[in-house]
User: Fold these one by one.
Assistant:
Number 1:
Amino acid sequence: MAHTLPVLPYALDALEPHISRQTLEFHHGKHHAGYVNNLNKLVEGTDLDGKSIEDTITAVAGNAEKAGVFNNAAQVWNHSFYWQCIKPGGGGQPTGALADKINADFGSFEKFIEAFKAAGATQFGSGWAWLVLDNGTLKVTKTANADLPLAHGQKALLTMDVWEHAYYLDYQNRRPDYITTYLEKLVNWDFVAANFAAA
Ligand code: FE
């Protein structure tokens, strides 16, 4: 069974004015679709054919000869996850057990926000900012290019794409404005809480 491009969980214009229809058309319809197509071409007829996306990623992580498979598989996973991390009318703050855990591990929600913004802003070039569970502790991390928590034994709870293709049409070089908007208007804390509850 070939890997498929997931349908977006909202309409292409649903995140406007924060993320435009044009950005989603390119980001989902061209970039994400491109990773899916590349991955399918790379694994067709190999022992990775038919494996789940997670099993594909863990099978090739750290194998330099399979970097192409890793990069495309990881980008497929990262984007499928990213679309669920945002929603129309998102933002605000988490509640319940996740809020308690953020307070316990970061000191306060504001300290978490500070760390997450810094991770996104200081990721040089392309990559991702994350909220992860690492051996039972919440951490903010950043990864370069396609790299992801699964390759480091961590459980991803939230991600933010900071590749230029995620924001350039709407924010040009103003990555910090995209990051602030992501946190204040777009984050789907229900999804993050569900990931935390399932961890
Ligand atoms: Fe992207």
Number 2:
Amino acid sequence: MYITQKDGWIEVITGPMFAGKTEELIRRVRRLEYANRNIIVFKPSIDNRYADNEVVSHNNNRTRSISISKASQIMDYVKTDTEVVAIDEIQFLDEDAVQICEYLADKGVRVIVSGLDRDFRGEPFSFMPNLLAIAEYVTKLSAICVKCHTPATRTQRIIDGKPANYNDPIVLIGAKDSYEARCRDCHEVPGKPHVYDLLDKK
Ligand code: TTP
Ligand code: MG
């Protein structure tokens, strides 16, 4: 990534689960910490898989963070001397997160966020498309498909050893217990309506 701007922009790290999004976020935060940048790291309180006040990657890298339940809480912590705001798993915040990222970037803050681009159904995750559209820089990571070992762009939800149904609720916190990475071909969503009904009729 080659950045020419002086300050204030949005960078999004996205992709399926097990792609290393959190690891990449922590790497970027760590680099800035070495340079003594003024950083605040947030994460949604809903995902307390590993720790309440730390962002933790699968390989156990960690960095201190503030848990928030609403995007607007970010503004309670940001000060005039804040240079960088990082948010892990931003897809779990509410839609205000998009405006807040835009506002911070306009004010000269470097905004680094990571989040899932798709839900387990393979559909865009909540407001993520809007965030991806306004970001200056997007890093789309892939995982490795557990079935065929090609690059995985989807997250497979598994319940009782079987692919989860399309009508299951979107939010289900978990890791290897209920999810795995899959490619387009190996991703299974029983009950998913065809998106190309229109073409089938031709
Ligand atoms: P992520 O941080 O995206 O997953 P990860 O830690 O495996 O990936 P990475 O290594 O790239 O950081 O966390 C995803 C969370 O979202 C996890 O708790 C499961 C949850 N989730 C849902 O609630 N609904 C869904 O449809 C999907 C796909 C995930
Ligand atoms: Mg993660």
Number 3:
Amino acid sequence: MSPTQHRASGRPTEHKARKRFGQNFLVDERLIHRIVRSIAPRADDNLIEIGPGKGAITGLLLEHCETLNVIELDRDLIPILLAQFAKYTEFNIHQTDALKFDFATLWRDQAPLRIVGNLPYNISTPLIFHLLSYQEKVQDMHFMLQKEVVQRLAAVPGDKNYGRLSIMAQYYCSVENLFEVPPESFQPAPKVDSAIVRLTPHTVLPHPVHHLSKLENLVRTAFSQRRKTLRNSLKALEVNFDDNNFTIDLTKRAENLSLLDYTTLCNEIWPAE
Ligand code: SAM
């Protein structure tokens, strides 16, 4: 057992929600049941919860699936979790930063990861990018996020929320915006609306590129000046676009290209070696 992994029993302590850990605890029982119904956990799932907090979702997950790994940064929450759930022998707490956690260590043959969590909103975008890098090992992910982040994940070309997060998430996953959640469902109530999203990694990538880091760079560069035409915004890439060897219309703006347009352009600029 690693030094940050806990299984022993502990004594609950008082806990005050901390802003710096993005702590907004779920208090709406009906909503918690709705979230867990959407996840539909099964007894033999390889479930992982990010940010269990005081266990609002954790308890119901454990009723369906006794093997549960949770990753919680706030060490003051560990005794509270242990006091409630120590009777579950397959309940493991990893007291660490999910942004640095190697999710591949939890992968088991025949049991891809099912990752869930009411995520701390202050780190949700970098955390999603971190998790996308494990997509081959993941069955699906269900997250509570700020509503705008869910809209960005699910956005299509032309939407005001369409951008780098939409394209990279949809490169790897199908994205379903499941339902919205009002601030009153939390204690303390956040200042923003929230929503539940389901991300299901594609078993076969629909639009693969030869060089993933090039796609990431292409999309980042295009959206760094989203109002300009691609011919202008992509100057920083130092690619010769003058000979018009590209099937994509470079007079378009970043926000008007589909995922397929981006992957096509990427493969035309940087073909397989
Ligand atoms: N799941 C609980 C609930 O729904 O009531 C708590 C959700 S709260 C929005 C986010 C949780 O993530 C908190 O428990 C917080 O301590 C934890 N957290 C914050 N930053 C984290 C990080 N970098 N890694 C792991 N957990 C983190």
